[in-house]
Amino acid sequence: MLIKTLPVGQLETNCYVVTDEKSLDCAVIDPGDESNTILDYLEENRLHCRAIFLTHGHYDHVGAVEAVAEETGATVYLNREDDADSRRDLHFPFHLTENGEYYADGDSVEIGSLRFEVIGTPGHTPGGVTLRCQDALFTGDTLFRGSCGRTDLPGGDTDELLRSLKRICSLEGDFEVYPGHMDSSTLTRERLFNYYCRLAMNS
Asked: Beta-carbon neighbour count of residue 199 at 10 Å?
């Protein structure tokens, strides 16, 4: 498994391209902006984008979805709770069309030999998810290195977020943590040093 991080847009959202190195099938996670940057990377490496996974529906994570989907023909996945039709709020601008599928806690999607498991982690948004693939967790804006997502925007819920952090931290073993913004981390590091994770685990 190859993971490429592409920070895109004014808020430097982390867009991830996760590739099965044998088949060159890949998934794009949170294409928030700069579709040309993402598409150039796919073309230069001769990758076949099969899926676009959205960890949540905020504008800075969905800005390049339509352009990447149109160019690649990839299926777009989003939790229904964060669809524009469900939220009717400017912070949730994306509506899933016929080339997309809703996914939820417990679902899984296979891309080549890679299996992405969906873990429901609401709190930052009602439909927030974390994607687990092998030893990697793509946590969106739920868990950051040393911090966590804000809950003061429409649909945010601090109690839900703490429950989601507790669920993530309760996973057995260690994982690489790939958040929606800023640097990557490990789950062991966050369990030990992240105030919000420690608060969640003791609640």
From this structure: 13
* Alpha carbon distance 186, 76 (integer Å): 27
- Rounded Cα distance between 173 and 37, Å, is 34
Residues in Cβ contact with 165 at an 8 Å cutoff, skipping those fewer than 6 apart: 121, 123, 142, 143, 148, 196, 197, 200, 201
Q: How many CA atoms lie within 13 A of 189 on its CB side?
A: 13
Distance CA 119, CA 106 (A): 6
CATH class of 2-201: alpha beta
Residue entry with tokens 């925007």: 153
Q: pLDDT of 51-76, one tens digit each?
A: 999 999 999 999 999 999 999 999 99
Q: What is the pTM of this model?
A: 0.97
- Please tell me the distance from the alpha carbon of residue 80 to that of residue 65, in angstroms, as a whole number: 16
Which sequence spans correspond to the domains of the chain?
2-201
Identify the DSSP state of 105. Answer: T
